[in-house]
């Protein structure tokens, strides 16, 4: 074991600031894996937040503890009706899915091409105030507001319990990037058609929505008191779109997010699903040592280090397939490589590539955590 | 002959410019002028092949594949009724069974690849999402397809992929079936563990791999 001289929070702060920590911090982005590893179904954990919370806490302890807890429970914090992402329909285990299935998003068109004008006129929040019930087939917005507020209270209560046990949930709020939010509301295919056929309408709607999305996230942070915003990015990457689309429809808004969050003393955490290799150079325009670039395995993390090393903390990227199908020895080997090539000088957070898979082998996740606690690189 | 060449050039330009309505108008104009429907379809396939080439060279992105695939779908819907009456299957590059395995309901990537494959002349039988292994086997037997495409975004699909391949072996069909996997969570490491023949996240590479397999079989 490496002799620890920093607290979990100090270790995290050090790597974000690109300073060298006592050891590389580590965190599996754990949600569905926790109920599975505690022998309860996903349905049980979703129906009973207390069971979800206990599964998360027990799994944290069974794994020997780590530096941040991705989420206190299975759900995301939001102020009722003030959507930080598109209000997509989530299929829940035991309700719309088999009892022990993984919750999944049912991606469908939430608004039509004609609605862009309305979004441009009303902005994000007022649009959903008016549109939500129609989109959800008559589900009253009041019910959603009440459920989300109840879950936010849970999030705050559970966070306090974790803090009392020296465990630190990662994010105070989450928010979708502009392309992510609109693509999920229109579907990838329809949104792509919109970008080519009515780009000015998309742009006007995004212009009118950006401030609301930022404010919604800030309002959540004011409740949770955790100074980090988890920005969900996937659909705006060079994997999907050419750079001129990124420059028009993603980057300007992302810069506004970063300015707003940094001015409030919050850490922007970019959760980059898919391959962002082409977009990484843009991140060097952001303030040094203030943000986190979290990669899921599709972006070459070693090349990311060449672009962002010394400028932005990188987080990642033990692959889901390795955690599910690999052996502990293979996990150890990959984590050693990550630490050797990214972690020896600070600015690196060892995490799973996107979420820890529900069917990851426990011994593989444990190995990933143990490597961070025992290995500081070959130098 | 000259007319066909002109049509091919015009359609290619419209496809490459990402102009859906222009493509549709051109197709309708050619139909009205009495152009052979199969020739129009072939011209659209050539245009789609150009889109694919530009994707391979990095000039086009996935969004251009998505856009042009939608345009191709729209054109196919216009041409299909007239073509069905004359179809004999002789122009098919190969028969494919495709689906998202049991445990996963994601289909965006799958749908893009399927449209691209159809645009390049493959006959694709799409089983949809959450497909149990037995259904893949039945469809392969029914259609006499020799390519099986499995797409996944989440890891629980790995178990179904493995079960499907085990069932292929059990039924004595493994040696005659090319199994290709793709989708966000798949990797070459996963391919080896699952026992599939090929893995890719790139729709144009998927087509190339299937074409190469078809050529090896002939």
Would you kindly provide a written description of the structure presented here, covering whatever features stand out?
The complex is a heterodimer of chains A (379) and B (218). Chain A has 17 helices and 9 strands. Chain A has 379 residues and is of the alpha/beta class. Chain A has one domain: TIM Barrel (Alpha-Beta Barrel), CATH 3.20.20.210. In chain A, the strands form 2 sheets. In chain A, strands 1-9-8-7-6-5-4 form a 7-stranded parallel β-sheet. In chain A, strands 2-3 form a two-stranded antiparallel ribbon. Chain A is globular and about 60 Å long. Chain B folds into 2 domains: 2-84, Orthogonal Bundle (Methyltransferase, Methionine Synthase (B12-binding Domains), Chain A, domain 1), CATH 1.10.1240.10; 94-217, Cobalamin-binding domain (Rossmann fold). In chain B, helix 4 (62-84) packs across helix 5 (108-119). In chain B, helix 5 links the parallel strand 1 (94-99) and strand 2. Chain B has helices at 2-16, 20-32, 37-56, 62-84, 108-119, 133-143, 156-170, 188-194, 203-217; strands at 94-99, 122-126, 147-151, 178-182, 198-199. Chain B is elongated and about 55 Å long. Chain B is of the alpha/beta class and 218 residues long. Chain B has a 5-stranded parallel β-sheet with strand order 2-1-3-4-5, with helices on both faces. The two termini of chain B are 30 Å apart. Chains A and B meet through helix 9 and helix 15 of A and helix 4, helix 7 and helix 8 of B.
């Amino acid at each position: 074991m490496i002799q620890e001289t920093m607290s979990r929070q100090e270790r995290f702060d050090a790597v974000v600031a690109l300073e060298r920590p006592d050891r590389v911090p580590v965190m599996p982005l754990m949600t569905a894996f926790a109920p599975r590893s505690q022998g309860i179904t996903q349905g049980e954990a979703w129906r009973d937040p207390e069971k979800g919370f206990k599964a998360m806490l027990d799994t944290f302890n069974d794994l020997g503890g780590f530096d941040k807890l991705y989420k206190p429970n299975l759900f995301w914090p939001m102020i009722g009706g003030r959507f930080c992402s598109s209000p997509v329909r989530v299929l829940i285990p035991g309700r719309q899915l088999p009892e022990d299935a993984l919750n999944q998003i049912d991606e469908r068109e939430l608004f039509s091409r004609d609605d862009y004008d309305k979004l441009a006129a009303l902005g994000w929040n007022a649009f959903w105030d008016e549109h939500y019930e129609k989109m959800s087939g008559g589900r009253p917005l009041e019910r959603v507001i009440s459920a989300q507020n109840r879950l936010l209270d849970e999030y705050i209560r559970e966070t306090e319990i974790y803090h009392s046990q020296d465990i630190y949930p990662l994010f105070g709020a989450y928010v979708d990037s502009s392309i992510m939010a609109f693509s999920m509301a229109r579907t990838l295919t329809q949104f792509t058609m919109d970008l080519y056929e009515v780009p000015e309408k998309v742009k006007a709607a995004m212009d009118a929505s950006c401030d609301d999305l930022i404010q919604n996230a800030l309002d959540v942070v004011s409740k949770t008191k955790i100074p980090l915003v988890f920005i969900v990015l996937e659909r705006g990457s060079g994997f999907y779109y050419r750079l001129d689309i990124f420059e028009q429809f993603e980057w300007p808004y992302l810069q506004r997010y970063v300015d707003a969050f940094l001015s409030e003393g919050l850490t922007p955490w970019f959760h980059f699903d898919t391959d962002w290799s082409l977009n990484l150079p843009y991140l060097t325009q952001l303030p040094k040592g203030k943000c986190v670039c979290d990669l899921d395995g599709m972006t070459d993390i070693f090349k990311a280090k060449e672009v962002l090393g010394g400028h932005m903390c990188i987080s990642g990227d033990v692959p889901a397939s390795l955690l599910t199908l690999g052996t502990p020895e293979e996990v150890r080997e990959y984590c050693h490589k990550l630490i050797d090539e990214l972690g020896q000088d600070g600015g690196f957070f060892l995490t799973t590539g996107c979420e820890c898979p529900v069917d990851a082998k426990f011994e593989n996740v444990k190995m990933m955590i143990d490597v961070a606690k025992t290995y500081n690189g070959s130098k | 002959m000259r007319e066909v060449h002109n049509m091919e050039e015009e359609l290619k330009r419209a496809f490459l410019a990402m102009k859906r309505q222009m493509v549709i108008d051109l197709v309708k104009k050619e139909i009205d002028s009495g152009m052979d429907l199969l020739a129009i379809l072939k011209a659209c396939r050539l245009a789609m092949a150009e889109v694919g080439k530009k994707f391979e060279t990095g000039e086009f992105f996935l969004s251009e594949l998505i856009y042009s695939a939608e345009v191709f779908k729209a054109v196919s819907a216009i041409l299909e009724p007239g073509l069905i009456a004359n179809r004999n299957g002789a122009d098919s590059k190969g028969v494919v069974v495709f689906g998202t395995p049991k445990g996963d309901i994601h289909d965006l990537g799958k749908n893009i690849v399927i449209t691209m494959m159809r645009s390049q002349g493959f006959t694709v039988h799409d089983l949809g999402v959450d497909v149990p292994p037995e259904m893949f086997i039945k469809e392969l037997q029914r259609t006499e397809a020799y390519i099986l495409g499995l797409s996944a975004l989440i890891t629980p699909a790995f178990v179904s992929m493995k079960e499907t391949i085990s069932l292929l072996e059990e039924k004595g069909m493994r040696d005659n079936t090319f199994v290709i996997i793709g989708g966000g969570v798949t990797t070459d490491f996963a391919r080896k563990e699952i026992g599939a023949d090929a893995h890719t996240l790139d729709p144009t590479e998927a087509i190339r791999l299937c074409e190469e397999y078809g050529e090896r079989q002939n």
